[in-house]
Each structure stands twice: as C-alpha cells, then as structure tokens.
Amino acid sequence: MAPRKPREREMLFDSVIALVFILVACVDLCDGATVVDVYRLIQYDMSGVPFGSRLASLNHHAASLHFSPHADLSRTVLLIPLRELNMSFVKEYIAESKPLGGLIFLLPRMFSFENKDGMGSNHQDESKEPLKNVLDELEKILIHANLPYPVYFAFEDDNIDAVLTDIKKNDVTGQPATATTGGYKFVVSATEPKKVVSPPITNIQGWLAGLKTDDDAHQLPTIAIVASYDTFGAAPALSVGSDSNGSGIVALLEVARLFSLLYSNPKTRGQYNLLFGLTSGGPYNYNGTHKWLRSFDQRLRESIDYAICLDSIGSWENELWIHVSKPPENAFIKKIHEDFSSVAEELGFKVNLKHKKINISNPRVAWEHEQFSRLRVTAATLSELSTAPEFLEKTGGLVDGRHFVNEAAIVRSVKLIAESLARHIYGHQGKNIQIFADNSNLAVNPSYVRSWLDVLSQTPRVAPFFSKSDPFVMALKKELEDHTDDVNLHRDVLDGIVTFYDSTSTKLNIYQVASVTFDLLLLLVLGSYLIVLFSFLVITTRGLDDLISLFRRPPSRKVKTA
Amino acid sequence: MTVFHFFNCAILTFGPHAVYYSATPLSEYDTLGTSIKAAVVYLATALVKLICLATFLKVSESDSFDPYQEFLKALIGFIDVAGLYFALTQLTHRNISQNHKFQAVGLGWAFADSVLHRLAPLWVGARGLEFTWDYILQGLEANANLVLSISLAALGSLMWLRKNKPKTLIPIIYLSAGIVATMPSITSYLRRGLGWHFPKVVGFELFTSLVMAFISWQLFAACQRPSV
Description:
The structure holds two protein chains of two kinds.
Chain A: H1 4-26, E1 34-40, E2 43-46, E3 49-53, E4 58-63, E5 76-81, H2 87-95, E6 102-107, H3 128-143, E7 146-147, E8 151-155, H4 158-172, E9 183-188, E10 195-196, E11 200-208, E12 222-228, H5 242-263, E13 273-279, H6 287-294, H7 298-303, E14 304-311, E15 319-324, H8 331-347, E16 350-355, H9 369-373, E17 379-383, H10 407-426, H11 446-456, H12 471-483, E18 485-493, E19 498-501, E20 505-513, H13 516-549
Parallel strand pairs in A: 3-7, 4-5, 5-6, 6-8, 12-13, 12-14, 14-17, 15-16
Antiparallel strand pairs in A: 1-8, 1-20, 2-3, 2-19, 4-9, 9-20, 10-19, 11-13, 11-18, 15-17
Helix pairs in contact in A: 5-10, 5-11, 5-12, 8-10, 10-11
Chain B: H1 3-23, H2 32-56, H3 67-77, H4 79-89, H5 98-125, H6 134-160, H7 170-181, H8 183-193, H9 198-224
Helix pairs in contact in B: 1-5, 1-6, 2-3, 2-4, 2-5, 3-8, 4-6, 5-6, 6-7, 6-9, 7-9, 8-9
C-alpha cells in the first residue's frame, strides 16, 4: 500500500495541471458592453391609421441576415447593414407581417451629418449612388409601413462592426443565440412613446420696404421669396434635409443679403417691396404656408405681384424647373418665365416651365406655390425636381445629406434668382446687364452659402420635435433680421391629419450574455472540480489518518500533506 | 451576469476553502478558531498595507510599469510576511499540532483575502447584464491564491517553528518562501510590464501555485524525516 500513494498523488497533480491548461486555452476574453447611438424610425398616425415603428424599448438577442430559415425571430433583433440589404427580404417581412423582435439598420458613415469630412470611414466611398438608391427605397417602405416592433438606425463604427462580425460567425455556424456560446443582447431602455400634442409650427417673415415716391399714392407692389425649412424622414433625429429644403433656405438667405445691400441705399432701392418667408409645415401639404398666408391682411395679399418659392435646388446640373399652376399663356407667368429663362441662358443652363393644374377638392398640395395660387396670387416654384413628389417623399430624409449637395449649384441658383428679380424690379428686360456679376461687391458669396449649408446639414428639422423657441429658429430669425426690416415670427399649430410620437433617438446597449445552459454546464464542472478536490484531500488525509491510527513510527510512512 | 452565474462564480471562489476545511482533519481538530484569528490578522495586515501604500506610493498618471514604484510595492508586500509570522508564532493555539496549525492559518488567510478582494466585485458584477469571463477567472485566481497561501504558511512554519532543519535545505526553504512572497509583484509585472492578458496571468498563477505547493510539500516531508 505504501509505495502506491506517491504515484497516485503525482497522477492527480498531473491531471489537475492538464485540466488547468485546457481551461486556460479555452478561455477567450471578449470586450465589455458597447454603447451605440441609435435613431428610431418615426412613429406617426395619419387620420388615425398607425405608421412607422410602434415600439421604442428593446430587450432581445441579436441576429444577422444569415439566420437559419426556420429560426423563430419573434424575440430576435436583426442587425442589417445597408451594404448587405436585400430589399425583397424587407418587403417580404413587412408585407407578410412576420413577427420580429426588432430591426436595426446599419448605415454607412457617409449618411451621418457628424461625418462631414468623410474621416474614419473603413469602406470605399465609390459606391455612393447604389447605396443612396437602396436607402431611398428602404426609407419609402419603412415610412409607409406599420411595424409593431422597434426599428432603429445606427451608423457603422469599429465597435458595432466587431459585434456584427461575431453575430455573423455565430449565425453561420448555426448556433442559435441561446446556446452555450451565449451571444449578444441588445437593450434599449425607453419609456412608451407619447403623442406630441399640438405640434408647433413657426413661420419667419422678413420685409424689405421699397422706395416710395411722394407723388405716388398707391401701394407699392410686393414680390415674395419663400422657402420651407422643416423636414420629414424615416429617422426624425437624422432628417437634416440638406437639399430639401436646406438649399432653398440658403438661397433665400443669400438673396436677402444681396438685396439688403441694394435696398440700404436710397439710390439703388427698388420700387418693389420684398417679402421673405421661411415657412414651416412643408412636408404636410405646406400647412405652415397656408396659415401664414391666411394671416395676411387684404392689402398685403393684393399687393403681391408674384411669389417665387424655392424647393430643392442643391443638386442639379444643367436644368431647373419652374412649376406653375396658372396656364403658361398667362401674362404674368409668361413674364416670369421670360425673366428666368433669359438669365439662365446667359448663365449657361436652362429653365423649363411646367404647368400642373390644381385640383381644389384634392387636399394634396404638391408645391408650395399652390398655397398662393389657391388664394389667387401669382406664384411659381423653382426646383430641380421635374415632377412633384408624393406626400411625405423627398422631404429631407436619410439620403438627403451634405455629401449629396453641391454648393456650386446653390450659388448658380442664387445668381439666377437674384438677377431675375432685379430685372423685374429695375426694368432691365432685354438688356445685358449683370447686377450680381462675379468679382463685384454684389457677387454671390460662396463661403456664406457653404457656412449656412453646413449649419443646415447638421440640424434635424422635423416640425413636431422643434420647440417654440428652438435655437435654430432663433438663428434663422436673427439672420433675417440682419438683412431685412420688420422680422416677425408667426406661430401656429400643425393641423391634425398627422399625429406624431416622441422618442426619436436613444442609446443602444450591447451586452455579451451567457445562456442558462452555459451556467448549468459551469455548475456541473464546478461540482466535479470540488468533488475531485475533496477526494484528493481525503486521500492525502488518509495517509495522515493511517499514521495516527498506527502507533508505530516506520520511516517510510512519514509523508505529510503540504 | 445573472444571479445563477453569480452563484456559480461564488462557488468557484469560496467553495474550495470549505472543501479543504471539511476534507482534511482540520475540522476534527477544531482549528476554526485559529483560522478566524488568522483572518483577523490578515485584515489588520491589509489595513497596514493600505496605509503604507497611500503614504509612500504616488499615483501615476500613466499605466506604465514603473520599476521603482513596483519595487516599493514589493517591499510593502512583505508586510504580508510579517503578518503571517505573527499569525504563526504569536497567536495562542490550543493543543494544535504544527501540521494543522499552518494549514489553519493558511486557510484563514486565503479566505480573508478572497472575501476582501473578490466578494465586492462579484456582488457589483451581479447587477450588470454583461457576461464576461472575468468573474470565472477571478474564482480560479482565488484557487491559486489558496494554494499559495497554504504553501507560504508551510514554508513559514518550517522557517520559524521548526528548529532542527537539515542545513542543506535551509537555502531552498528561504528561496521558495521568497518566490511565494513576491508572487503578487511577479503577477503585477506580467500584467502591466509585459502586457499579459488576464487569462494568461491566471494560467500562470495556477501553474506556479501548483509547482510551489509541490515544492513546499516535498520540503515539509523532507524536514519531517529526521525527527523519527
């Protein structure tokens, strides 16, 4: 018996050492929790019909597009990069109302307004246009769908890309998220979204008074330059609308600046009043414009010679469109078109006229000038779009970002607008006079255009989520005050066809979790370990007991435990 | 971490102490009082170490490995040896043989160390959702620490309580004790000087503790031999 015990102890030692090294080799330390900014798909009701993402809080395991075809996804969040998006998959899941725990779309950084210079992008930007088309189509589908689960947008970065790689690896090997490997759990702690009651809209109005001669008793005519400034998009916190209608706002501000220089000197002041309007509610049938016009008194409304509305003039190349509601044979329309097209011809591009009759019984207002036309005011919309967008489309959504707007196009638009207005005001028709020639003190200022475009490209502007005294609205007001007199804020409430819900952006916590199965296995391993340890200690103790029980002291039996 | 996982990690951290106590003759010889006294001595030693660390060490802005600061930490770490000396020599032990005395002291010492250093992180971690391997590794580290503590207690018993040691073994005993006593500094150097990750450090600790336990066991057995 005595010679066997040391060998038994050494074997146990070797086993323990081997177990330890195996365990150490299996351990793979991973990163801790990741926190990602996420932006929720808009939630709204239209005439009581629910649309958009109807939930905000999220607490599910994550999966990628490589999930098993038979997997139950009702308690799973799908993490889908836009680069791998299969549009038929989205259509299938939305049309068939298949249950999902949630959706998170990963957008490339080029769509982020915080990524102005394109730094930190891991991917090539050469695939801009296809990604833009995919995102545009996705946005249309999501806006018009009713999704009973949370839908969020996030931007690619190193952390979430690493998480996505891990999730894909798990999904490819066919391990469900609740297996021993655990997986990732996505948690968004958010309260139930609440209705936004009485969403405020604010119109900003500026006025440049014309030169009034003493012998002239009648009211001076007025020209109105109008642009809508708020947006609508799939993610309200990301709807910056650089082109629609950031470009229009920038153009209006620059035109106001140029004409304030002219009108500040009595010698160059025209005999027309200039009315500048920055209106709200544009995506919703130009509701703000409608209310703004109804607040006009009769004399002001009758004095408007014509109104020119600016809409999406930031990414055109060779031609612009003037959209009108009166017939093209109308004398006023013909004059406007002649003014604009002659200036455009001199500047090297083309301005087309497009007539669209107003259907009074149709509540849809496609262009801003239609709100003027319904009140019998001559009006037109200058736009790069050849056809009118559908309701809640092309209203400054996810694809409308700084990367896709050309400031040179805005500069040319400003030049066209200012020169055409000046010919109308000063009666220079037919003469080749350029008041706003390049390199003169009345030239269009590209840095001014660029600065305001950058500001607008970083400011989400969905109307219900603006407060009454939003700093952006105050900034627009102050800028208009610098160039015009009599700046007024006209406040009203958005009409009730569309009801909005809050909770537009939040933080997503990504946890790497272990499953109960893993912990059960761990409990078994620990139990076995403790049993082995107990046995080992008793065996060594038994030698000691043998020593105590024997009252002799042979030298070969004097081994002690360490 | 879930509550289930918390219990698993707690079993891994504190279970071996209970198993050691119940499996060995310590439970039969009523050495619980000695273990409790050793634990109290450990807490007092930890307090003294804390005061010394706060007094003599400056807080470095960077996490780089500073040899002078680490040397100072190692010197302060020898307060543990002084505390162990006190626990082994000055505490009154009722009728407990030398074999059981050092085991009881080592066990109490290791248990107090685990309670002081690992119970709070374990409890705080139980509130979070995140699963990490850190708590399992901490439990394994507690096991290594238990083995090291008993080894150091055994070597201390040989150094301070046994009179007639073979002369050829005395340098080996002191060298082994020195290695075991500086083990915290060695692991700190591996972690911050060489940049080892936690799993690798824990693996090294487990391996080294088993090696030192084997050596201590052999030394203890060798010192027993001439007494018969």
